[in-house]
Design brief:
Layout lengths: L5 E8 L3 H13 L4 E5 L3 H12 L9 E4 L8 E6 L15 H16 L6 E4 L4 H12 L6 E3 L3 H15 L6 E2 L2 E2 L7 E2 L5 E2 L2 E2 H7 L6 H12 L1 H9 L4 H15 L4 E3 L2 E5 L5 E6 L2 E4 L2 E5 L6 H20 L7
Parallel strand pairs: 1-2, 1-4, 2-3, 4-5, 5-6
Antiparallel strand pairs: 7-10, 8-9, 10-11, 12-15, 13-14, 15-16
Helix pairs in contact: 1-9, 3-4, 5-7
Length: about 325
């Protein structure tokens, strides 16, 4: 079999709600000519592939099929969603033990293939798992990235746009740090098409926006819990976020996205993975951008990093090189 990388081929490992929703989202993008679905339950993967394939006459020209690790050596992108789901009352960090074991098994299987593309981790806790995926695989850090706070940033933009009564696509704001309870919104640099956020709120008749911003940030942080409480799981939003990351990679966009990536001195941090705006293209993470933060934001980012460092130390994992 020719294992030269096929830029039109991707695989999704894990065909639960998140994996299947990502597959459906990728179908709409026409980014790939072939999509391989892999799951510990092979029949589940077959069923999802069949169901998705039945929509192809009304969508992109592509092939969707169930497969195994022997089919991924030439993939340009592999997306990992396999793992236990976050349940009501659980934090993302509560999932570490179960999902680390699943991830280790996946990485062992991938290392037995000539895969040389981008490995995108979506399973939670995504920052810890991205760190471990890079450590266990030995792949260059640029090629092992996590979905990070791309979804959290979308939630922030949507809520700000709703309150300001503007198109959320005109809102430029980012969530950084852990994809989890210690994440933070960077309001100091947020704007609406170049208009400072505070000024924009004043123009909209809301001059005292600080309490509102604090509430919006809390709503972003607790969005997953609110959705899980109501419907049991979150999957559509993350599917759209992953499709956005995939597009940046496949189209070599050099897009700036807050993906989970290994830090090498940014904000004085190294040896861990956090979400910081990064330039994403065909080779994965091309550059990590140390964006300006105010004093409070910098302090909170360092606190977020300290929490993740504590978890990593408890795993007795050596630092990333």
């Amino acid at each position: 079999m020719n294992h030269a990388e096929n830029p039109g081929k991707a695989a999704i490992i894990g065909c639960g709600h998140v994996g299947a929703s990502i597959a459906f989202s990728l179908m709409q993008t026409a980014l790939f000519s072939e999509l391989v679905l892999i799951d510990a339950d092979a029949r589940r993967a077959q069923g999802e592939a069949m169901d998705l394939s039945h929509g192809l006459p009304y969508g992109a020209t592509m092939r969707i099929r169930a497969g195994d690790y022997g089919d991924v050596g030439d993939c340009a992108l592999i997306i990992v969603t396999a793992g236990a789901n976050q349940k009501e009352g659980e934090t993302r960090l509560d999932l570490i033990g179960k999902n680390l074991r699943i991830l280790a098994s996946i990485v062992r299987s991938l290392r037995a293939t000539p895969f040389a593309g981008i490995l995108l981790i979506v399973s939670n806790p995504v920052d810890i798992l991205t760190y471990e995926a890079q450590r266990l695989s030995g792949y260059p850090a640029a090629r092992v990235i996590g979905s990070g706070t791309v979804l959290d940033s979308a939630r922030l933009k949507q809520l700000l746009g709703e309150r300001l009564r503007v198109d959320s696509r005109s809102v430029h704001a980012v969530v950084i740090g852990e994809h989890g309870d210690s994440e933070l919104a960077v309001f100091s640099g947020a704007n609406v098409s170049g208009i400072d956020l505070a000024h924009c709120f004043a123009l909209r008749g809301q001059p005292d926006c600080a309490p509102l911003l604090a509430q919006i940030e809390e709503d972003v942080r607790t969005s997953a819990y609110a959705i899980i409480e109501r419907k049991g799981a979150t999957y559509y939003g993350i599917a759209m976020a992953v499709a956005r990351i995939a597009a940046a990679i496949v189209r070599d966009e050099h897009a700036v996205l807050p993906v989970s990536t290994a830090l090498s001195g940014e904000y004085g941090l190294r040896g861990l993975v956090l979400s910081i705006p990064s330039v994403v293209g065909r080779q994965g993470v091309e550059d990590v951008l140390e964006i300006p933060l105010d004093t409070s934001e910098r302090s909170r980012l360092l606190d977020s990093a300290a929490q993740l460092r504590e978890v990593l130390d408890s795993l007795e994992a050596p630092p990333l090189s």
